[in-house]
Every structure is written in structure tokens, then in C-alpha cells.
Amino acid sequence: MSERRHILLISGGKDSTALALYMRDKYPERDVEYLFCDTHKELRETYDYLARIEAFLEKPITRLAAGHGERGFDHFLKVFGDYLPAPSMRWCTKKMKIEPFESYVGDDPVDLYVGIRADERREGYISTKPNIRPVFPFKEDGITKTDVFRILDQSGVGVPEYYEWRTRSGCYFCFFQQKIEWVGLMEKHPDLFELAKGYEKPDQGFTWIQGESLEALAQPDRVEQIKQETAKRRAAAKAGRKPRSLAEAFGAQPDDADDDAVGCLICHL
Ligand code: SF4
């Protein structure tokens, strides 16, 4: 039987990066393999951050390249009849992240280190393969979000550049992003926003955001409204008060989501 492998999936987000640094310092003798499942639809900032992480770890991050070329997102979109992926039908994660990862690992016994923190409620990637054993060092050691920022700060790696306007790594068109992040994409990467728009077929109900096309979201009045609503909710959250009205509460659902509340666990850690 082969020796147990130690694998850490790096998403280009803060938690998996902090975990890589944490594991390196806590278990320097452990030969941890770093992997990144590349959909080739990530932001430039994420690729820059990966290069930075590699420099600090002094070790390469292996890119699993199953998510590009012939069998990339556009191929799978056709296979799925032009149905854009959505939280309830997340074929993108399965086809572009989980399957390439599981095929890379094969039947080797693996400890897969997952960066879910002690202050999170969510479950991690649950492997269906018996040879892959998920391990949660942050949960086991009581590491919280504050600790994660401290690890990134003290190591010198810092946070990815996209944190100015977006809370998560992942594809530029990820349907998990908040409306204010779509606005951020439009302002920071208008070319990518246009590409994301090009995937939509609003007349057939194929939009990234349920019930709203990017064309509609991009209208100046709508952008202003999203910005104002976000500012209000952030102020309320800071003041520690509950939403005052039903409209505020319902409005809060998509845009107020903290990076812990929703998201793709294999993509956004
Ligand atoms: S980042 Fe979002 S769109 Fe990309 S694979 Fe993950 S869930 Fe799908």
C-alpha cells in the first residue's frame, strides 16, 4: 500500500492560504502537496496571489488543469444544455474541481487538509472516496477568522488584492458572489463583466443571479441602489443592530452574505 499523502487544496482565498502557512510552521517535517484546481476563469488577482503564496512557501502549487481547453467550463456548459451552474446545480465544482482532484489522487491514501475555521458552522468537502480523509486543523486548534488575518499579516503574505471589492476567490462569474461584488467586477474588470454577461440568456431564464440579468444590474440607477443598500446594511451590521424592516431584511439576503455564510467550499476557502 502506498504511503499516506498530505494534500492541501489552495483556492487563492485567505483561509486555505493561512492553512498552508500554519501547516508549514506547525509540521515542518510533513511533505504537504499544494494543489490548485484551475478553471481558467479566475481573476488575474488570484493568479498573482498564487505566485505570491508559492514564493512564501518556497514550494510549487500544482495546477490541476482539467478545467480548461476542450473540457473546460465552455465544454461543460454545452454538455449541461447551456444551464448556467447555480447553488442548487453546481456542476462546475463537480466537473472542474472535485473530479480532477479525485482523479489526481487516484487510490492513494490521502489526508486532505481543509481550512474551515473554528468559528464557522459549515461542513467541508466530504469525500465520497474512502481513501481521502478530510482533516480540519483550524477547527481542531480553535483557529478563528481573526487568527487567519493575523497569520497572513505576520507571514507577510497579506490578503489577495481582490479583497478590496470581493470576499472570495473563484471564477469571475461565480454565482455565489454578492450583487455588490458584481458591481465591483463591472468597475474593476469591465471586460470580464461583459464576458459574464455573454453567458446569460435572460429570455430563457439563464442568468447568473436569479431573477436579474447582468444587463439590468448594470443600469446606473440599479448600481446606485445596490451601493446604497450595501452601505446601509454594513452600517447596521457594524452597529450590531438587526434589520429595521422586512425590506431591509430581505434585501440583506444576497448582498449581506458574509464570506462564511455561503459559497463553494472547495472553491472559496
Ligand atoms: S468558483 Fe463558483 S463558478 Fe467557479 S467552480 Fe466554484 S462554484 Fe463554480
What integer value in Å does the Rg equal?
19 Å
Strand order of the largest sheet: 3-2-1-4-5
Give the SSE string: EHEHEHHEEHHHHHHHH
What form results from the Cα inertia axes?
globular
Major β-sheet profile: 5 strands, parallel
Coarse structural class? alpha/beta
What value does the average pLDDT take? Answer: 87
- The number of distinct helices, counting runs of at least 4 residues, comes to 12
Q: What is the percent of helical residues? A: 40-55%
As residue ranges, the low-confidence spans are: 245-262
Bound molecules: iron/sulfur cluster
Strand content: 5-15%
Count of beta strands? 5
Would you kindly provide a written description of the structure presented here, covering whatever features stand out?
With 269 residues, this protein is α/β, with parallel strands linked by helices. The protein has 12 helices and 5 strands. It has helices at 14-26, 44-57, 73-79, 91-105, 137-140, 145-155, 179-188, 190-198, 214-217, 220-239, 246-255, 265-268; strands at residues 5-9, 32-37, 61-64, 110-113, 132-135. Helix 2 links the parallel strand 2 (32-37) and strand 3. Helix 1 crosses helix 6, helix 7 (179-188) crosses helix 8 (190-198) and helix 10 packs across helix 11. It starts with a strand and ends with a helix. The structure holds iron/sulfur cluster. The site of iron/sulfur cluster has 13 residues, from helix 4.
